Amino acid sequence: MAEGETESPGPKKCGPYISSVTSQSVNLMIRGVVLFFIGVFLALVLNLLQIQRNVTLFPPDVIASIFSSAWWVPPWCGTASAVIGLLYPCIDRHLGEPHKFKREWSSVMRCVAVFVGINHASAKVDFDNNIHLSLTLAALSIGLWWTFDRSRSGFGLGVGIAFLATLVTQLLVYNGVYQYTSPDFLYVRSWLPCIFFAGGITMGNIGRQLAMYECKVIAEKSHQE
């Protein structure tokens, strides 16, 4: 190279910390979007089962889709699913207790199938009274946690999610947004917290699995570099 000539600077590369933060932010966004659409899909399917059985009744003017579901139900459930699915692995990391029980997609899919079955039972199976149905669904929901989770954090978050979701539902029904047929727990059915508990465990498992997949991808990229 002749004197006086300077080498043109190449493209600046981000440092490892900035690159890592950017990658984690993008992966977090992707996981949130995936969880949102999973929640929307499950809301459409499960709410359709409830409406067909006349468990929930919406005013005629809010029936706005071919799925016979109020327009706000799928986005609300999708947002809640994203929050829950991202919260579970975050709590695991905060407590220093990574969840390693049955960490494969086949187990997650079985968990989803059991959750749909529990919801289907609440709409299709006839019991003598709501107390028998509530006790049966409570046992099934705890069985779902024991089979696919077994973590203290998962159980605690499931109970918290069930409490908050039931409280919000009570307020919605109280304000006339929609209603339940034959309510026996203030304005809702007594088995509703069981459904919310099982749903929280299910979305938590999906979120944990997505987070584990993300960690594997990042580890492989770091190893290649």
Short description, anyone?
The protein has helices spanning 16-52, 73-95, 105-124, 130-148, 152-174, 192-224; strands at residues 56-57, 179-180. It is mainly α and 225 residues long. Helix 2 packs antiparallel against helix 5 and helix 4 (130-148) runs parallel beside helix 6 (192-224).
Can you tell me about this structure?
- The protein has 225 residues and is mainly alpha-helical.
- The chain has six helices and two strands.
- A two-stranded antiparallel ribbon has the order 1-2.
- Helix 2 packs across helix 6.
- Residues 1-8, 10-21 and 62-68 have low confidence and may be disordered.
- This is Insulin-induced gene protein.
- InterPro entries: INSIG_fam.
- Belongs to the INSIG family.
